[in-house]
Amino acid sequence: MENNFICQIGLTMINGIGDVLARHLLEALGSAEAIFSASPRLLEKIPGIGGKHIAEIRRPEVLRLAEKEAAFTEKHRIKTFFITEPDYPARLRECQDAPVMIYFKGNADLNASRMISIVGTRKSTPYGRALTETLIHDLSAIYPDLLIISGLAYGVDIQAHRSALEANLPTVAVLAHGLDIIYPSTHRDTAKSMLDRGGLLTDYPSGINPDRQNFVRRNRIVAGLSEATVVIESAAKGGSLITADIAFSYGRDVLTFPGRTTDEQSKGCNALIRQNKAALITSAEDLINALCWENPKQPKKAPVQIPISFPEDSVYQKVVSHFQGEKELHINELARLAEIPVYELSSILFDLEMEGVLKILPGGMYKLACS
After folding, report:
1. Closest CA to 318 of 301, 306, 333
2. pLDDT tens across 278-326, in order?
3. What percent of the chain has pLDDT over 90?
């Protein structure tokens, strides 16, 4: 078995080294294998690495556990994606705290062109279940390859998976434990069905139980895998609100359905709207418009043009032209493409935003505004 593969798994098993610090080590040394073979003197030069970290890296038990996990993945035909590999989910890689290793069983394309996460309360109401089913059904009629992400939990999550399967859409569950178990066990049949049309994904190796803190950590993957997170129902507090906050921090779109002010399971959704963290939607059409998705069942709209007040050969047209093939661009990347200094570009982007041509997103990201 390839030694670097064992070292990649081992990197995730070093006590005291999380995903962010692991990525720093990879950037400094180039590979997981190089991390385990590096001398203590070299390791201690890396920012954030101290004596305790070095002792853990050199602990023989780490690679023995990694060898065991590597054998488990091979035996059960589990796919692995390492952060430096080209087939690692591109959207997830953009997140600063993305897991350096994920384990996947299934056949879904984790780099599908359209992916949304659907989350909500475990105590869903008939209203929430109907919203989930209708949203997925209506989207499937337009986008037959849309990938639905959720967490296999009770309530909205399992409804999203089952509705996706009924609509013949691929659906992936992000788990808070290893792939040697299914939790909750009552959802085992649904999980098995997803292996043929979607899959099961986790950043936890086998032997890890579904402890409470694991569910909070897995929410970053639910938020990071997709381009948008939809909250169907949520009480004033809950895991789906944590997922929404994470998605918002990543600069991803967050969408939610409103509810009556007296409904306990809509208080979280209403709060997201009130705090301007989520866009209000009431239908699949609203979602499509909010994400600026092209609807193949409708006539194509003419390309977005800048207002007449800006000359066609102006710097404004030059800036807008770089968005035609990109959904979103960071101001620094746009400055490089347009060859315009950031201090000059900022005022141009402000003008375009005021004219309704561009929309500013969290994290210095911009995209074309929907017409």
Report:
1. 306
2. 999 999 999 999 998 988 877 655 555 555 456 666 888 888 888 765 5
3. 75
Higher pLDDT, 362 or 212: 212
SS3 289: helix
Q: Give the integer Cα–Cα distance in Å for 304 and 88.
A: 33
For residue 65, give the nearest of 16, 8, 10, 2 by alpha carbon: 10
**Which residue type sits at 37?**
S
Closest to 134 measured CA to CA, from 29, 346, 286, 274: 286
Which H or E element spans position 368? Answer: strand 365-368
pLDDT in the model for residue 307: 52
Task: Calculate Rg over the CA atoms of the chain.
Answer: 22
Tell which wins on pLDDT, 367 or 197. 197
Task: Report the C-alpha gap between 290 and 253 in whole angstroms.
Answer: 8
Residues, the chain, total? 371
CA dihedral of residues 137, 258, 184, 149 (deg, nearest 10): 50
Is-contact 2 55, C-beta < 8 A? no
Output 303-309 pairs: Cβ under 8 A, ≥24 positions apart. 304/357, 304/368, 304/369, 304/371, 306/352, 306/355, 306/357, 307/355, 307/357, 309/355
* Domains annotated on the chain, with CATH: 1-75 (1.10.150), 115-290 (3.40.50.450), 315-368 (1.10.10.10)
